[in-house]
Amino acid sequence: MVISGQDDKVQVKNVVLTDSNIKELSIDGRRIKLAYPGIYADGWQIVNGTNVCCGKYENVRIGAVMSQGPGESDIIFYNGIPTKNMPQSGSVSYKGDSIISGADINDEDYVSGKSNFTVNFDSKKLSGSITANSMSAINVNADISGNSFKGTAKSSQFTSEGKVEGKFYGNNAAELGGLAKGNDNSWGAAFAGKKQ
């Protein structure tokens, strides 16, 4: 998701990432490093305006990149190594991290938080929440198709409901990652989680 503008005059466009590189992104001709030799962060790593989470995930990365000048846009992203062998049954919990941006977030560009999901592979349903300390939860409900999911995202924090999309990553859906955004483009969030 590429974000341009400020405060409540935000424009959002989705950009499909065409590779599964968790060390570098290429968006609209802009190369963004997500990993640096000799630097490991189990939690959030912040280098040159790029917030990346987290070394504890083997197959997915999420984060936000602040614009570095006029004509550049902020970016919220998720990317990873997609699952090839999806589970066909069972119910599993995923816990992880999130980063949220929105016009209604107390003058902060981004707020980091947590994510909690329950996935039922029998019924092909995902439900859960994206949270940050100072905010009402963003509640997520989605349908699973193959290694992807799509659905709705709602929070009393924001006036607009939204959509959620994401994928399962790693062997046997070990991790998940995704993006939620308001239908009016006033907020967005990226999230990741690890199977518990």
UniProtKB/TrEMBL annotation:
Highest taxon above the source species: Bacteria
NCBIfam families according to UniProt: slam_lipo
TM spans (from-to): none
Residue intervals of the Transferrin-binding protein B C-lobe/N-lobe beta-barrel domain: 86-195
Name of this chain's protein: Transferrin-binding protein B C-lobe/N-lobe beta-barrel domain-containing protein
